[in-house]
Amino acid sequence: MTNSSPLFSAECREKGKPQRAPEKKVTKEPKPNELNLPKATDPRLLQAAAKPSKAKPRGKPMAPPSQVPPPASILTRVVARGRFQKVLDSLTLAAGNTLELRCKGRSVRWKFPTYLEDEGRLRCVSNGRYYQLLVVNSTAADTGDYSCWSFQCGDSECQDGVDRMGRVFIFFTGQELFVPTEDYYQVVQLRTNRPTLLPCQVTSPLAQVTLHREFPPEEVAVDGINISYDMKRGFMIHRPRPSYAGSLFCMASLDGVQQISTKYMLIYINYPSSAPKPTLSASATTVQAGENFNVTCTVSGEPEVAVDFNWEYPGQQIGRPPYIREHADLVRRGGQVQQESESVLYVDEARDIDAGLYTCSAMNLQGTTTVSIRVRFRAGWGQVLGEA
Hints:
Layout: H1 10-15, H2 43-50, E1 75-80, E2 83-86, E3 90-94, E4 99-104, E5 108-111, E6 122-126, E7 130-135, E8 144-153, E9 158-173, E10 185-191, E11 196-198, E12 208-213, E13 218-220, E14 227-230, E15 234-237, E16 246-254, E17 257-260, E18 263-269, E19 279-282, E20 286-288, E21 293-301, E22 308-312, E23 323-333, E24 336-347, E25 356-364, E26 367-380, E27 383-385
Parallel strand pairs: 3-9, 10-18, 20-26
Antiparallel strand pairs: 1-2, 1-4, 4-7, 5-8, 6-7, 8-9, 11-15, 12-13, 12-16, 14-15, 16-17, 16-18, 19-21, 21-24, 22-25, 23-24, 25-26, 26-27
Domain Ig-like: 276-372
Region (Disordered): 1-72
Subunit structure: Forms a complex composed of PDGFRL, TNK2 and GRB2.
């Protein structure tokens, strides 16, 4: 369930109009001889009071950057009627309690665990001075990030107030130590080009969590460099490698109770650094009737990177089926090991329809590259087909 009130309402625009500052009353400065001097016997006090004061520089003195306080949070929690609590980085509540958050602002946008929209336990209301988010009958699954943004509304439009944001991570503790999910197994890709997250979130910040492999059964070392742990997110694999592939799970311990998370099936994918760069060659660029020839598409790249090939050739016009052979081998070039992938298109007993353009498309996870070569057909008496 989302807030039914529009983000930029007419009420928001009306209240967002800049208010005119109240006029200041001008007070006439008394002359030195009209000053009400304090009753004091010390002549120095009399002399100081009689002296006109020096003009002070306009504006408030700026505090050093290190002493400037951070902006006050616009997000608070309602503890009871008339009682409020400032929210910090995180908050722990018992599952089953009602969560009530207030966000100051004339126009506010909320962010919360997405599945709550379909649960029917979420309400968002506004009274003009603040917006309220209410979650009733909370469960361990409600654990997550809750935040709000306040928008600055002018005469015609509302703009996001960058410095007007409130955010809190809320743990809903109960019998379940992990945030429940519907999946018993979850497939996770280990890509070499980015970190991998195992999202085993806990419902209590006090739970001790370890990472384990299912086969063979062993605990996976968490050194903070290759793998790190964040109680709000889970385990992060910063440097994916083939040895991490397999079935992994998290184990949480609290007050003598142990529970395991969803099992994660990690599949290692050596993500390429760029799209393939194929080269194309033909066994003969000019052939005669009845001859056999082939066209070879070759890609040299990183080991363990899958490359797919696709062909377009003149014989497709009459439905001539292709005969294609593909293979990949590891080769050493310049002291480095590379993978050489090839796709070979064979044409037997060539006919005039086989003259023309042969196009190879090589694809990997980064993109597709296409190259072409022309094969000409010598029909006889010096006539060459496929020149156009």
